[in-house]
Amino acid sequence: MERVPYFAQFESRDRVLDLVSGRMDPADDPLWQQSGATDPAEYAEWSSHICGMACLKMLLAHWQNRVIPTMHLMRECRAYGGYVVQEDGSIKGLIYRPFVSFLEEKFGMQAQLKEHTPIEDIYDLLGEGYVYIASVHPGIRTPEVAPPKQGGHLVYVFGRKQESREVIFHNPSGHTPETQEHVHLSLETFARFYAKRGILIKPTGEPQA
């Protein structure tokens, strides 16, 4: 099986559960500097919002052999309107349409927003050279637990297993190696978490072996 590079949205991938649960302050992540943040405070402010940038980081490493820190990607995407810091300090994003423009203009990739699109439709396209950044509930890290809703998090879908009709993806907020890299879920299970929207991408370059 092709080994696709993996990156978490938090730099300490072995501490993800502590970070998302609040047991650990992101400012205390000992690897925060690898994100490209200017200081721990910036990292703490943004790290829970950049699952989409982690997906993009994986996509670029996969197809263009480029590894760009997530915070660098966030700043460039923000310049396109992909993130907005509102008056109360809250962060809105990832905003899909500006992100599509960012992918096309900055990285030369064909990208399109998909809405009201069943995962079965995406599954068919995965065999035609497309990848997909899919909106799912973050609880997808524990697929045995029913999610309260769909969406709110992004994962990088890059493959499929035809014999069992499974999608293969990386989850930037997975909490174990098995829930982070090369996760296999049936279409039926994935659909329980999937909000039927995301970004379909035809990458440029060649996938890295």
Automatic annotation (TrEMBL):
It comes from the Bacteria. Residues 4-172 form the Peptidase C39-like domain. Pfam families: Peptidase_C39_2 (PF13529). This is C39 family peptidase.
